[in-house]
Amino acid sequence: MDLGLDALVALMDAAAGRCAYADVRHVVTEEEQLVVRGGAVESAEHDVSTGVGVRVLVDGAWGFAATSDVSSAGLAAALARALATAAALPAGLAGRARVAEPPARGAWTSPCAIDPFGLALEEKLALLVEAEAALRVDPRLVRTEAVFVATRSDQAFASTEGAAVTQRRTSCGAGLSATAVGAGEVQTRSYPSAHGGLVRQAGWEHVLALDLVGTAPRIGSEAVELLTAPPCPSGRTTLVLGGEQLALQVHESIGHALELDRMQLLEAAYAGTSWVSVADVGTLVYGSPELTVTADATVAGGLGTFGWDDEGAAARRSALIDRGRLVGTLSDRESAGAAGSTQTGACARADGFARQPVVRMTNVSIEPGGAGSLDDLLADTGDGLYLETNRSWSIDDRRLHFQFATEVAYEIRGGTLGRLYRNPSYHGVTPSFWASLDAVCGPQAWSLWGVTNCGKAEPGQFAAVSHGAAPARFRDVEVGVA
Amino acid sequence: MSAELLGLAERALAAASAASSSDQVQATVTRERSLASRFARSAPTQATGIDDTTVHVLVVHDGHAGTATTNALDDDALRAAGARARAAATAAAGDGGTGDHPGLAPPAPYAARDGYDAATAALDPAVAGAQLRAAFAVAADERLEAFGIWSSAVVETAIASSTGVRAADAVTDAFGKVVLRDAGGRSAYLSGTGVGVADVDLGALARRVVAKVPRGPLVDVPAGTLPVVLGEEAVATLLGYLGGMAFNGLAHVEERGALVDRLGTSVAAASVTLRDDPGAPATLPRAFDAEAVPKAPLTLLEAGVARHVVHDRRSAALAGTASTGHATVPGGSSWGAGPTNLVLDGGDAADEHALAAGIERGLYVHRLWYVNPVNPRETLLTGVTRDGTHLIEDGRITRPARDVRFTDTVLGLLSRVEALGASPRLVSEGEYYGRRFATGVLCPPLRASSFRITGGA
Q1: Do A85 and B94 touch (CB under 8 A)?
Q2: Nearest CA in chain B to A352
Q3: How close, in Å, is residue A367 to chain B by CA atoms?
Q4: Predicted ipTM of the assembly
Q5: What is this structure's pTM?
Q6: Over the stretch B321-368, which tens digit does the pLDDT of each residue have?
Q7: At A11, phi and psi to the nearest 5?
Q8: If you write DSSP's letter for every residue of B82-118 in order, what string do you get?
Q9: Which pairing describes strands B24-40 and B145-161: parallel, antiparallel, or unpaired?
């Protein structure tokens, strides 16, 4: 695909001298969404968009103009608008000089064994239709759904510092959900994860590996079973969180809290701030010694994996928390510079061509521990609760006080799973919760989970990120709502 | 302007219709031009200008829907979009016989709404600069820092369909919010929105926010229930979620909604009347929905009694009724329809202070944050307070309180309403994910006899 990299480089030549810095991204996005519901294809949608976003830095403030007109005239007009926008504003924040980064050069493509856009639509729908049909095991199921999504993003990037790169990223995923109504209850069960299925930076081979058809009957049955399951008991107990729920816990109470722009108050009016300050890096005890967390934009299959971030910084793996101690943050060139660092965290990411990059998670993962498989961990646990598959989430604007609910809870009794419970929830305070972590399953139970709808910035933009997680155990957690 | 977009919609319609005369086709063109200027620590941070036009093609083939979008506007791109939409609809049909899509709407006259302001449509960056400077000046005078956004936009929509629909509209909106924050991190917040830039004055908002910044030590509030006064911002957030949980016609038909078996019964206090009114004074007006069905006022709660849910054509067909003009996407969303112009009628209280006069010990909540459904069928939500929570003591809003988590049902809260403010104000979240679609809730502050606090925040 010709992304017009030469034209972008020419535009940057025109921008040089008119601003302190400029960059430009040409993004071509293709997306397919399929929904099968109640025995019929409810939605089959195929979207394409192309556009350019030009960003300029003038007196410390960013101006940005996005347009779908990718002609030479369109690019020039966008540059002019970006400059005019920035020039009309007061001066930006002082002391935010961007750290240096070698100009990016080259091309990068994400791995993809079976191109989801190369398959016949009928083939993809056939799998979803078969899986959705297999969900419908009981007349109390009022809504059964199989969904598929695939995204391809082709991007060219250039800057006034001489960067010129192209990237192609392909992701896809699928999932099931079954909702049952009865006995005054509405209960939903999802697989392999809630909120739209499990998405990875991979091809159709990832969807095939999910075994949707084989798993569907269990999901439908569990939704019905939840209707008459007893409510999850309340009180303080030992909690084992499944990988998917733990991934969201990491996302909300570690990932966002460590975004450096939040610590620097740039999101105070919207997404919020952080209970962590820049001065805490190196000293703050974030959790128990079982807690080691990394940000890794190089891990295969991650939604936050790339060759370069959206301001041309090379992908890297960074330590965030090392055996409980805070050692790093998520940053871009500007926030890193403002914090006195000499290196960016390469976390500048933008949603399409019509949004500016902001500090985002890449793939923020809790490293596997030594607790073996889930069965090993349960056997070691004795008594407690096992919670799986997120249903609801809420956390304050400093990322401190949270409350989560999951679709199911199982009693852990004598080291094995027992009774099913409905409507489980738990709440806590971030550092206390992570301090109660005392075991993490091993590599055999570790998996990459995706969050595709992480919202931030204004105008709002979504980011797709991944979190590697294995089931983990937490002691003395408050279960239920006060 | 709208004529140009209608011409584009007709081109897209023709390109998609050429392959088959038996299929129904709707072409929807949306053009967004917007400018959003963010600021933090009394300085601009990011300013984002957008100019993008999207063509959405919906094909209904034998009762099955397929859609495709493009933002390339040449004939080849429009033909390709039509072909993709047709291929999707044909694949959806497969061997399965006739689908359940009821087909596209017939032409229907719609009321013109006064939702366009030429000055706003100019998107003058100098206006943004002046607004930010005004807010910064107020903050500087008070030794506070200002955070927020100033944003304005013009969005044009045109729909052309094979059933003869030709509809076009252009709306503008302006949105601004100011958070003032002291060195200790205590903050207060106000937002404003309207059809035009003249409706939002960041300097004036900032001056009102100054009085709301908490002074003095924060008081802890233990878990339990307390009488509460909710400011307009908080009320709007709760009603926005209620829209999806209770009034979504698809959820209602699928027996997942909060009003299943409750239409026609009392679900809120008699003082509560909630409407969806696209032409209400001070709302962000809309003429038609995403299926070109004209929008009209609809009573949702009348003196506390649940009256209606909202539908698009697809959920209406499942329910055996007619669309109420609440489609959010062409062809209907798989998540159902939703209200976009909620109006909660006011009462007699002059303002939040008058509402507080009836409370011996309670809580004033200005803004809610990170609200999420816990049990949609029960309208059970959880979330936290933010930016200006105060105690109410002996009938007055007094000491600043540490933010709290709430877990409560919206219908339960509405059934405990004791009084409402007299002057509803338009409140918007101003988030604008994806293509800009400005909405707001017109509501007053209210007093309820109890609000369930379940922890700190």
Answers
A1: no
A2: B434
A3: 28
A4: 0.95
A5: 0.96
A6: 999 999 999 999 988 999 999 999 999 999 999 999 989 999 999 999
A7: -65, -40
A8: HHHHHHHHHHHHTTS---S---PPPP----------H
A9: antiparallel
